[in-house]
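Message: Just now I want nothing more than another pair of eyes on a protein record. I am handing you a single protein, as its sequence and its fold in token form. As I understand it, each token names a local backbone shape. Take your time, and here it is.
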Amino acid sequence: MVGIADPTGAPAQLGELVTLVDGGDMDCGGGLLLLITRAMRRLEPGQLLGVRSAQESVVTDLPVWADLVGHDVVAQLAESGDGPWWFAVGKAADTGQTTVFSQGERTPVGQRLWLYTNFDCNLACHYCCAKSSPRAEARRFDPAVAAEVYAEFAAMGGREVLLTGGEPFMHPDLGRLLDAAVGLERTLLTNAMIFGRGRRRDTLEALDREIVLQVSLDSATSEIHDRQRGAGSWERAVSGIELARSLGFRVRIAATLFDEDPEGVAALHRRLDDVGIAREDRVIRPVAEEGYAETGVHVSIDTLEPEPTLTADGAWWHPVAVTNPHLRIADSPLPLAEVFGVVRDTMAVQDAAARTGREVFRCA
């Protein structure tokens, strides 16, 4: 089974393994590196990690990775001429050095954190990377756990937290999730369709006006937006934007497009100019080939700058990849230090190998 497993059953020629990473069909660029990095952090210097993969490229890539980070591949064998391949990797002694990465205008790891409040949604968008819909399992984030997350994040020097879903206003304790993050910059992503009345209107009006609302609006008129999100959704989103602004919230607009039609983008910008949405409060992003999307930009650990993301049941490399098992960092959101540690260790390998330039897939 893909993941970190008991080493019982590994070939005896590998030696005495402490743990085993079974990568299945994953290669180093497709999630195996995250699994190895996570497992290595739990070993003591000199202890052995077993690695198994059916990908032939690992025969070349794994020794290169080990050399870059100072570990030793002490044994290697194949089950047959075509693999799978097995490795025993000895953990190097900790040098105590910390690598600092220059990321230009990108957000340094440790300053920004994403949190999925829930996965149920009033919409079922064709391109939803999270596979959210009215039928999706809610998987709601516990406000008590969120408070622990924020406290650790702030203590580590964290600055900004972004809450998304699903539709966050379907979480009955959304107010508590946001209140627990006081002292951090807070952005809440919403489709702005369901907070106009009742209990959700009360939640909206009670929110701190320092919270930025990022609303999804895919086009200047209803045609594209409704085709992607459902009939009538554009009109309700526009009404929600007007309501939020009338209540004193700063509103940011995010458009998601399969094809970045220049005229369509220009039309959207003209509309946002007319209603007074500042240029810095606009995000135009492509569809990622994740979740429900069958086409779009292919994303991987090699092409995405990390944006550590927490859900009720784990941690992930980036918010567009929370349905991709290859980009899972941890099986629980805490401890946060472990999540950021795996990300930084993985980046160290990537940056030491080559600076080929990851793409920044901006969600906010």
